[in-house]
Structure formats: structure tokens, C-alpha cells
Design a protein that fits this description.
It comes from Anaeroselena agilis. The chain has helices at residues 10-27, 34-53, 56-65, 69-82; strands at residues 29-33, 91-98, 105-111. It is an alpha+beta fold and 112 residues long. It has one domain: Ribosomal protein L17 (50s Ribosomal Protein L17, Chain: A), CATH 3.90.1030. The radius of gyration is 14 Å and the shape is globular.
Length: 112
């Protein structure tokens, strides 16, 4: 399976995406670099698929990854049922342009 390493070891990368996805589901959209947005979009699709299943095991799997119980509750009670009839494509990436400090390409990741 191909994934971007983003200059981090595996534990730092997992911690990064745990915090990104927790913020993403809490707020509905986040602004981050383009590469992080593309990777977070894949993981967000997996979390929404768990929320669509909606059983206890799926909830516990989401709780093991996301860092806030309130976010998991929102994911399973609001976001999951919203996409019940959708087969995929839950997120949208809008490109913003370069960041002022280091010219890294920035994007907005949001729910469709």
C-alpha cells in the first residue's frame, strides 16, 4: 500500500493524522498542506465508512483512532447518517496557493 511519509516516523505520522481527523470531524473543514489533506482524506473516508456501519464494534474502532468521544458521537450521530446513501467521495480538497512562510502548497479539506 502506498502512502506519504511526510518526513515523520510511523508514530509521529499516526499522531499527526489522529489530531487532524479529530479537528476535521469537529469543525467540518480544516486548512492544511496539500499532501496532508490528501492523506487525511483517505483516512476520513475510512472513518465515515465506520460511521455508516454504526455498530458497536465500528464505534470502538473509531474511538481507538479519534481522540475525542464527543467527536465520535458527532461522527456516528450526524455525519454517518448524512452519507448513508453515498458510495464514496465524502471530502473535497480546495487548493489555496502557497503558504507565506515557506511556500508550501495549502489546501482546505472539507466535507461534501
Amino acid at each position: 500500500m502506498f502512502y506519504r511519509k511526510l518526513g515523520r516516523d510511523s508514530s509521529a505520522r499516526k499522531a499527526l493524522f489522529r489530531s487532524i481527523l479529530t479537528s476535521f470531524f469537529a469543525h467540518g473543514r480544516i486548512e492544511t498542506t496539500e499532501m496532508k489533506a490528501k492523506e487525511a482524506s483517505k483516512l476520513a473516508a475510512k472513518m465515515i465508512t465506520l460511521a455508516k456501519r454504526g455498530d458497536l464494534h465500528a464505534r470502538r474502532q473509531a474511538l481507538s483512532f479519534l481522540m475525542d468521544e464527543d467527536v465520535v458521537k458527532k461522527l456516528f450521530d450526524e455525519i454517518g447518517p448524512k452519507y448513508k446513501d453515498r458510495q464514496g467521495g465524502y471530502t473535497r480538497i480546495l487548493k489555496l496557493g502557497p503558504r507565506r512562510g515557506d511556500a508550501a502548497p495549502m489546501s482546505i479539506l472539507e466535507l461534501v
